[in-house]
Amino acid sequence: MFGFNPWKREHSSKFFSEYRTAFVFGQGDLKRLQPFINKASQVVFIVWGFKEPEGLTAYAAKKGIKVLRVEDGFVRSVGLGAAHTFPLSIAVDSKTLYFNARQPSDLEELLNTYEVSAEMLQRARECRLQLIQQGVSKYNHTAQTDINKIYGEKKSKRILVIGQVEDDASIQYGLEAKMTNNDLVRAAAKEHPECEIIYKPHPDVLGGYRKAFSNPMDVTDVAKVVTEPLGIVDALQTIDHVYTMTSLVGFEALIRGIPVTCYGSPFYAGWGLTTDRQPNARRQRKRTIDEIFAISYLVYPRYMNPDTGEHIQLEEAMKILIRQRAESMELEGDKKRQALAFSEAEQLYKQALNLVYQPGREQVYIELLNDARQYEKSLRLIEEKQRQNSLPDSLYCEKGIAYAGLGHYQAALSSLLKVEKKSKRQMLALIRLLWKIEGPSDRLLQATEETLKMLDVDFSKEDIMQFAAILNHCGHPYKAKRLLREKQIEPIEVPYLSLAVNFDFDQLNASTYSEKVVVNQLIQSEGQFQQLLTTQKKIGIVLEATSQEALHHFCQKFDTLIFVTKPTFPLVDRNRSFVIFSAIHPELHEQVNLSQVELLLCNEPGLIHRYPHGSDYMRTLIERGVKLESYPQGLYRELVNQLGRKPSDRELLLFWIVQQTGEKIAEEQILYSGNSEDKDMLKSYIVEGVLQ
User: Fold this and answer.
1) Fewer CB within a 10 Å sphere, N or C end of the chain?
2) DSSP state of 295
3) What is the pLDDT of residues 172-193, one digit of tens each?
4) What is the phi/psi pair of residue 286, to 5°?
C-alpha cells in the first residue's frame, strides 16, 4: 500500500480485509520490494490518490499486477480529513480515481452501463431522502447554523459558489481550463448580475490546513464571502443555484433539487442533470438523480464500521455518522457549559438529542435530554420504561438527575441512592445534590472520598476542583490542597472562593487577592439581614408586583423594601433602603440600579464555598457598595427537609424572616397576587393566614 499517511494505515487496512496488507514508507524502491513481491502468490498495489513512486504503474502493467486507487468516500466523517479524522467510507477504483475526467474510471463505467433495479432505485430514493432529512454530507464537522445570521435577509435569487483547494488533484484531473476560485466567483457574478453571489471558501483553506492561491477577500466587491464555520447542508439552505468547478458539493446540491453549473467534469456531470461548461464525450447516457445516487453511493464505495472494522452498507454508515455528530455536539456543549455559555451549550445538547433518538437508544437519548435540561420529557420516558420493566442502574441515575433538575430533591436523592453499580455520572450527580441540600455533611464527605477512589475514571479539571472545594468545605483544607497539587492545578485556576484563598494562603500569592477581598466581605456581612430585621420596623416585602400602580402605592408605606422579584422601576428613592433576594448572577442585575441596594441576599447557601463562577462579579458589587449575604445553610437544609423539594425564592425569604424574628409576618407587609403553586406554604408564614 503506497501513499497512506501514518495515521491512516491501520484504519485503511480494515477496508481491505481480503488482503494481507503491507505499507511502503516514503516513495519506496521497486528493486528493494522485488524479493517480497516474488514470495507472494498474489500481489495488488493499493495507492492513495496518485501518490505512487515513479514507474509503479508501468511496472505493474509489465508484471500483470492489479493497481487499486483509493480516495475518501462521499459520506466520510464528522471532521475534516486534514484534521486526521478516520473515514467511514472510501472509493476504490481499478482504473483511475473517480474525479479524473481525463480517462474513464470504474465509477464512470458503472454510470454508463449499470442497470439499476427497481428495488435498488427505491432503496436509493429512501437513502437520499434520509440523507437530506438528517443533514448528512461528506464532512459533518460543524454544528447546525441559523443561516439567516450568516447570509442575511434574502432579497433576490441566490447563487452559491463553492471554493476548492486550488492545487487539489480533483481540479488538476477534472478541470481542463486554468481557473482559480476567484475566477469562478467572478464568472458567476458576470452571468447572474441580478443575483446575490455567496462565496464559500473550502474549509481546509479557512482552517489553515491547505494553501490558498487566490485571496477570498479580493472578490468582496461582487460576492458575500463566508468565513464562519458553515457545513454544506446549512450552506445550501435558501440557495437557488450552485456554481462549482469539480466539487462534490455540486452533487449534494443536485440531490436536494438545486440546479448546478460545472466548469469542470466531476463524476456527476455529463448525465443530463447539470449545466456543463466542459463537455465529456464519453458520457452519453441520461441518468436520473436516484440512479446516479444508487451507483455512486450504494454500489461504488466501501463502508466500514470504525469501531468493529466490519464492512457495512450506507444505511448503517449514516446511523454511525449521526451518532458521531451527536457525540461531537455533546462534547462541544460540555465545553460551552464549562465556559459558562449555558444557552449555547443547551442549544448544542438539543441538536444532539434530536439527531440520535431512535428505538433501542433511549439511554443515550435520555442522557441528552437531561443534559439539555429537558427534565420533564426525560422523566416521561423513564417512567414509560419503568412500567415495562425494572429500571437498570443507569436509568435510576438519569431519573435522579431529572428529579434534581426539577427541584424534587428528596425524590432525586432516593433515585440516586438506589444505584448499586457506581458510575462517574451517578456519583457526580449525587455529590452535587448533597452539597446543595445538606452542605458540609458526613454523607457528602463520604461520597466525595468514595468517588476519588474510582481509579478507572478520568475526571476533568473542573471535577477535581469541585471535589477539592467540597473537602475544604467539609473541614479538610489540607486534603483539598494536596488533591489540587497532585493534579497540578494552580491557585489562579480555582473558581471557588474559600478554596482559592486557602490553597493560596501558604504561598501568600497575589493571584487570589480578589478572592480574599470577596471572602472577607462575605464573612463581615454575615448577620446583616438579622440586624436589619431587628433595627428596621417598617419593612415591606415585594413577593410579586400585581401592577405598577399597586407597587408604587405599596412602597410608600415602608422605609425598607425587600424584593424577591427584580424591581420594575429605578431604585432612586434616597429615603428608603432596598434589599434584593435573588441568585447572584450578572444577567439578573444588568437592568437594576444597584447604587441604592443596601443588601443583596443570595438565594443559595454556601456562597463562599459553592459559588463556581469566580470573584469578578461579586467584587464589582462590593466595589459599588453592595453588601452580600448568603442563605444560611442550616435553614436551607431544614426547609428542604420540610418540603422534600427545592423551595421557591418566596418560601426561602419568608422562612428566613420568620426564623430570624421568631414571629409570623403581618399580612399588610406583603405585596403578592397569591396565584402561585407555593401559596399554601406561604400562608403558614403570615399572621392572618390569608394573602390578598
Assistant:
1) C
2) I
3) 999 999 999 999 999 999 999 9
4) -90, 130
- Beta-strand relationship, 89-93 and 66-72: antiparallel
Tell the residue number behind the cell numbers 442502574, with chain if given: 393
Which residues make Cβ contacts (< 8 Å) with residue 356, sequence separation at least 6?
Answer: 322, 323, 326, 364, 365, 368
Hey, CA dihedral for 74, 79, 83, 87, is it positive or negative? negative
Residue type, 402: A
Annotate 253-281 with b (16+ C-beta within 10 A) or e (fewer): bbbbeeebbbbbbbbbbbbebbebbbebe
- Residue whose entry in the numeric block shows the C-alpha cell 458576470: 190
CA distance 323 to 19: 30
**Cα–Cα distance for residue pair 321/325, rounded to 1 Å:** 6
Nine-digit cell string for 338: 464549562
Q: For residue 486, give the nearest of 503, 505, 509, 506 by alpha carbon.
A: 503
Q: Cβ(473)–Cβ(498) under 8 Å? A: yes
DSSP state, residue 603:
E
Global pTM reads 0.54
Question: DSSP readout, 211-245?
Answer: --SS-GGGGTTTSEE--S---HHHHTTT-SEEEES
605 forms beta bridges with 631
Which pLDDT score is estimated for 75? 80
* 8 Å CB contact between 86 and 160: no
List, in sequence order, every residue forming a beta bridge with 671; answer none if it has no partner.
Answer: 542
Report phi then psi at 275, rounded to 5.
-90, 115
DSSP secondary structure letter of residue 493 = G
The number of residues making up the chain comes to 692
Region for 483 from its dihedrals, namely left if φ exceeds 0, alpha if ψ lies in -120 to 50, beta otherwise? alpha
- Strand, coil or helix: 686: strand
- Taken in order 307, 309, 314, 316, the sign of the CA dihedral is negative
pLDDT in tens, 311-350: 888 888 887 787 777 777 777 777 776 776 767 776 777 6
pLDDT value for 84: 41
pLDDT for 80 beyond 50: no
CA distance 244 to 198: 12
Instruction: Record the cell numbers describing residue 421, joined without a space.
Output: 453499580
Q: What is the CA radius of gyration of the chain?
A: 33
Measured from the Cβ of residue 593, the count of other Cβ atoms closer than 10 Å reads: 13
CA distance 4 to 111: 28
**Domains contained in the chain, CATH given:** 137-284 (3.40.50), 522-683 (no CATH)
At 275, which helix (H) or strand (E)?
A: strand 275-276
Q: Cell numbers 480555582 label which residue?
A: 494
Which amino acid, 183? D
Beta bridge partners of 67: 45
The three three-digit cell numbers of residue 461, written as one number = 479539571
> What are 121's three cell numbers?
432505485
Report yes or no: 555 and 571 within 8 Å, Cβ to Cβ.
no
What is d(CA 404, CA 391) in angstroms, rounded to the nearest whole number? 18
480 and 472 Cβ atoms separated by less than 8 Å: yes
**Beta-carbon contacts of residue 171 (< 8 Å; ≥ 6 apart):** 164, 165, 245, 246, 264
The burial class, CB within 10 Å (0-12 / 13-18 / 19+), for 61 is exposed
Q: What share of the chain is helix, strand, coil (3-state, %, to 5)?
A: 50, 10, 40
User: CB 451: neighbour CB atoms within 10 A?
Assistant: 20
Contact 600, 628 (CB under 8 A): yes
What three-state secondary structure class fits 175? coil
